[in-house]
Amino acid sequence: MVPLLQDVGNELSIAQRISLRRPAMPQAIAKIADVISAHPTAPVELTITELADRAGTSAATVTRFCRAVGFDGYTQFRVGVAAESGRGDTRTTWRTDIADDISQDDPADRVLLTLLGLHTRSMETTTSLLDLDDVQLVARAIAESRHVDIYGVGGSGVIADEFRGRLYRIGVNAHSWSDVHEGLTSAVLQDSSSVAVAVSNTGRTEETIEMLSHARAAGALTVAITTDADSWLASIADVALITASANPNQRPDDLSIKHAQLLVIDLLYVLVAQRTLGEAANLLAASAMAVSSHRRAVRPADETSARRRKETRR
Question: Where do the SIS domain residues begin and end (predicted)?
Fold first, then answer.
């Protein structure tokens, strides 16, 4: 890790700090320095994930870069860049960090309806983009596989973990990886009886691309879940399942993107379960029984409340 600029002080501008430390930065961190040097206001305009994608690296690497140039994290770094560029006003920050189509003063009902429309459009767009022949091909391969590797970094790692958990409950030997070292170790052990699935919003995350590349070289059927059919990740995958991309007005951590990804993994999960129906049903029943003792019985008050809610709806 590059040391903090504790010996330099605050008299240097951020650009000067980056320039001073750039020669000693590891390659991954240097990529971020190069993006910011070319576009000094990028941190004000981009989320940590978007900046990482633009640099072809990870959110964790962006955080290491921020520390390398004397900031505790990305939030503090963005504030510093905004202050130096004169773009730190509240409205600009709101539009950049929250949304451009939702006002700071919008009532809760309007916020809810705006978000509902956004998420509904994302799901509908994903439905229109999916090639069901490809989806069924992947489901069949997963159902018949010896092992399934699932790769995802940052927010995509959450989707990868969710997919792994669902498959594992119906008897699929699935593992998810967000750490590139662990993921690469698993990827090279795959073969033609394996399936490797990579999740990445932009399809440009370096670690995810690298893990899927190694799995493909080892002989696994490779699958990309991404918003960009022309991305690096999609280009190296045997099958690319395309989901809706971000609404340009809804920034930065647009959950509608993740809901579209969840739709895809839910579809795959159900199709795999259909192909392994007997075994899947037995395993789901067994897992439900295993955790049943950890669930408390319904409270009488809860039953009363539920009855009242039903009566109110009538």
Answer: 138-278
